[in-house]
Write a structure and sequence with these properties.
Helices cover about 80% and strands about 0% of the residues. By secondary structure, it is mostly helical. The protein has one domain. Helix 1 packs antiparallel against helix 3 and helix 5 runs antiparallel to helix 6. It is elongated, with a radius of gyration of 18 Å.
């Protein structure tokens, strides 16, 4: 696999993270300028932002949880030259689910408990399977 094919899903995940950051900044700026939030209300990370800012903020902070493992696995697979077609397909599936989760976070955020759990259950085996395929190439 070429380096572009292996790293493209990773770069799309990074783009999602930056898109959420650039969306969040004006939302929080508006919260301050409109008086809806005062700096002392959020100084110790209290969730006193507007609902919209909280939704986007939680989605943004979520990008530093499970995706960090994805970044590490992708870079290791590329560096050790063990990223094959299965690895890239699983990486794309993981990134698609991350985009879907971010969409749910920043929209109504209404999911049935089963859907939220099943979304996490779908992503974890994908992430856990990535190193398995990597180690088979050794």
């Amino acid at each position: 696999m070429t380096v572009q094919e292996v790293l493209l899903p990773l770069f799309l995940e990074v783009i999602l993270t930056f898109a959420l950051l650039f969306w969040l900044a004006p939302l929080r700026g508006h919260d301050f300028s409109s008086g809806a939030t005062r700096p002392e209300d959020v100084a110790l990370r209290e969730p006193n932002w507007s609902k919209r800012s909280l939704q986007v903020g939680y989605s943004y902070s979520n990008q530093f949880e499970l995706p960090v493992l994805f970044y590490v696995l992708t870079i290791l697979a590329w560096m050790t030259r063990h990223a094959d077609v299965v690895f890239v397909v699983l990486a794309w599936i993981f990134v698609i689910f991350r985009y879907l989760q971010a969409y749910v976070h920043v929209t109504s955020n209404r999911t049935h408990t089963g859907n939220r759990v099943s979304n996490k259950v779908r992503k974890m085996p994908i992430l856990l399977a990535l190193p398995q395929f990597e180690s088979k190439g050794m």
